[in-house]
Amino acid sequence: MMDIQKLYSLFKECSRVATDSRAIEGGEMFFALKGENFDGNEYALKSLESGARYAVVDEGSAAALSGDPRVISVPDTLQALQSLARHHRENSLVDGKPITVIGLTGTNGKTTTKELITRVLSMKYKVTSTQGNLNNDIGVPLSLLSIKGVTELAVIEMGASHPDDIGKLVNVCEPDYGLITNVGRAHLLGFGSLEGVKMAKGQLYDYLAAHGGKAFVNADDPDLMAMAAERVGMETIEYGIDKWDAIVLPSSAEHPYLRMAIPQEPGSETLLAVETHLAGAYNATNVAAAIAVGLRFGVSLEEAIEAVGSYIPKNNRSQMEKTGRNILIKDLYNANPTSMTAALDNLAMVEAERKVALLGDMRELGEESLSEHVKILDKVLSMGLDLVCLVGEEFGKALDGTVPEGVKWFPSSADLASWLKENPVNGATVLVKGSRGIQMENTLPEL
């Protein structure tokens, strides 16, 4: 059995943790993780040659039998990584007490909400948070292990595509506070149904209820309110656009980004303007979540609004870009029925003379894939858009051989890009959205 205290003392000698031997810069603790198509044990000795201080490998591997004193053998490298992360979380102290961890999950908006929360809390605290979307069984421990001695708060994002994923991750990061952005129809291949999604995401609430934790809950969302009510003993901190009597202002070519107005205090007629660089009214609840977290931790409303305004999204998440020819709403990182519906609703609200939707398949929907694509097809056809371009096999099945006027279908995003080159779109507001595997970013150079 691995001695976690011994492993932790060696970890503290190292500059950081690494899982990619190609990224060694010197002084790291390298973990030889295994996946379907790779085995990090094969690169452990190479990592040491490149400057890693220690290499954690699986018992019985060639590296474990090498006799190199810098090699640490464990029964399971992933379990060792997770155990080390939990131990570091428990031993990272602020004023003599374990650091406060805020854990968040949800169907949509996790990464944007995490970034907004981090930006708001950073107005007052030194914050460590998940980098990018490293939110799985490897990313969560890596995020925890990046907590430094100066860190005062940690914000950890958790993703899930299987029923027990969140249950495992909360036992690694041990959150004191939690937030579920929403629950929707995504990863149905793994969860089976919307109820399966609720049970999976609800494991964050389960942990908080069992450990005296507190949950930030969107009071406008009946699913989240019902889920929270089921967890007896869990303290809730409610927020919401309707609950706060906040207003989401319409977007236009002059004001393309999300804008809001929030009462200065509950019941006040004095409204404070919230200007963002986010595309889409659906991000209003993400902004509200970040402000709610900030208020709980002593950040003033004015400071929170300033922080939200300073956040500029990247990685094609809720990004808006004005090109020489069009206004693009880029939401390319992922797609599911809930986020696709929200993106189309937002496009419907935008004031623009010409509107276009370029939509790629939604992946991982299992047996419900066809019916969900048909619903999105029906919705987009009802919107009276100037042009609709659909990409992928699933949308092809939904069309069932009948392509209505104003609609184009393409097997791949590369095919759509070639068509756009020959048939340029100009002077339009264009929504570009699809699951990551469809690679809708291939169309952007032609817009």
Keywords:
447 residues; Udp-n-acetylmuramoylalanyl-d-glutamate--2,6- Diaminopimelate Ligase, Chain: A, domain 1; UDP-N-acetylmuramoyl-L-alanine:D-glutamate ligase; 3 domains; six-stranded parallel sheet; 20% strand
Instruction: Outline the biggest β-sheet.
Output: 6 strands, parallel
* Overall 3D form: globular
CATH superfamily of the largest domain: Mur-like, catalytic domain
Radius of gyration: 23 Å
Question: Mind explaining what this structure looks like?
Answer:
By secondary structure, the protein is an alpha/beta fold. Helix 4 (110-121) packs parallel to helix 11. The model has no long low-confidence stretch (mean pLDDT 92). It folds into 3 domains: 4-75, MurE/MurF, N-terminal domain (Udp-n-acetylmuramoylalanyl-d-glutamate--2,6- Diaminopimelate Ligase, Chain: A, domain 1), CATH 3.40.1390.10; 92-310, Mur-like, catalytic domain (UDP-N-acetylmuramoyl-L-alanine:D-glutamate ligase); 319-446, Protein-Tyrosine Phosphatase, Chain A, CATH 3.90.190.20. 48% of the residues are buried. The protein starts with a helix and ends in a 14-residue tail after the last strand. Helices cover 34% and strands 20% of the residues. A hairpin with a 4-residue loop joins strand 16 (319-322) and strand 17 (327-331). The chain is globular, with a radius of gyration of 23 Å. A 6-stranded parallel β-sheet has the order 8-9-7-10-11-12, sandwiched between helices.
